[in-house]
């Protein structure tokens, strides 16, 4: 897949921002519970200020390493993607098993005191 740039890159970034993120949802819930719009906005601003430097470092590292190790990075990314799918499928399967109704207990036997 070729790298997106310009308007395509902006559109891709906007689409990717719609992907679920546990950290983002936790901060959104906390911001909603803050009690004021200013407090909620401050909570979101702290998230942005805290995550932006790390994301910028990852992007820069990707640009520096990509020309030298493009094939290895793609294979590693595909492997991690597949592993993530297996883990999520296992978690979903376990959740479905836990949500099954519990069978009723057998009737009590004779008292053996």
Order of helices and strands: HHH
Average predicted local confidence, pLDDT = 82
Helix share of residues?
over 70%
The major pleated sheet works out as:
none
SS element count, helices: 3
Q: What is the percentage of strand-forming residues?
A: under 5%
User: Radius of gyration, rounded?
Assistant: 23 Å
Number of strands: 0
- Terminal residue distance: 74 Å
Main structural class: mainly alpha
**Quick one: overall form?**
flat
User: Ranges with pLDDT <50 over ≥5 residues?
Assistant: none
Structure description:
The chain is an all-alpha fold and 113 residues long. The chain has a domain of 78 residues. The chain is 75% helix and 0% strand. The chain is built from 3 helices and no strands. Helix 2 packs across helix 3. The longest helix is centred in the middle third of the chain and has 62 residues. It is flat, with a radius of gyration of 23 Å. The protein starts with 5 loop residues before the first helix and ends in a 15-residue tail after the last helix.
Q: In terms of topology, how is this protein built?
A:
Blueprint: H1 6-16, H2 22-33, H3 37-98
Helix pairs in contact: 2-3
Short précis:
With 113 residues, the chain is mainly alpha-helical. It has three helices and no strands.
Record keyword descriptors for this entry.
single chain, 113 residues, mainly alpha, 3 helices
